[in-house]
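User: Predict NlpC/P60 family protein's structure from this.
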Amino acid sequence: MRQRSNISQSFKKAANTLAAIGLVLWVLGGSELSAQSRQMLSASAVSGAYRPAMAGVPQYLHYNGRHAAAPAGLPPAIYRAVAAANELQGKPYKWGGGHRVLYDRGYDCSGSVSYVLFKAGLIRGPMTSREFRSIGRPGPGRWLNLYVSGDHVFVSICGLRFDTSDYGSNRGDGPKWRPTARKFPGFEIRHLPGL
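Assistant:
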């Protein structure tokens, strides 16, 4: 009887795993995993803190290694935010960039997040990383999360991080999509209502 119970539990675990894989395939919009999808999946597994948690809603951006695209069924502000972040790909890191003028040659962390949120229609102008500590509400949102400390800010949109530095280093190397996790002790997670 005990052996039968163990077999039953094994089948349940296998069924749950298959269901999870099916959900991921549905979210990614295909029946086979491409190399980029596998990269996104492994990034999402590593950086689960960036992943929004809302069942039955498209949650992951499509990412080709340089630009991202939002799946159907998301709020218009998310599409605008993703498009704005794509515009900044390849721009260099520039301390204070994006603060005096929104359209700059380079951007720092808060300048790039300001650009993305402004173009999405979510803020009125550039903000400093400290000012982002009072935007929105504490805690994670459905699709867009801000990670704010006293001297750095980055955003996660549908599980994909947009940041000016990699792996938590203090050296900025320009705003871009980053499919890897980074250290964020000391960061507060904030969200904008409805997102």
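Residues 114 and 126 are 5 Å apart (CA to CA).
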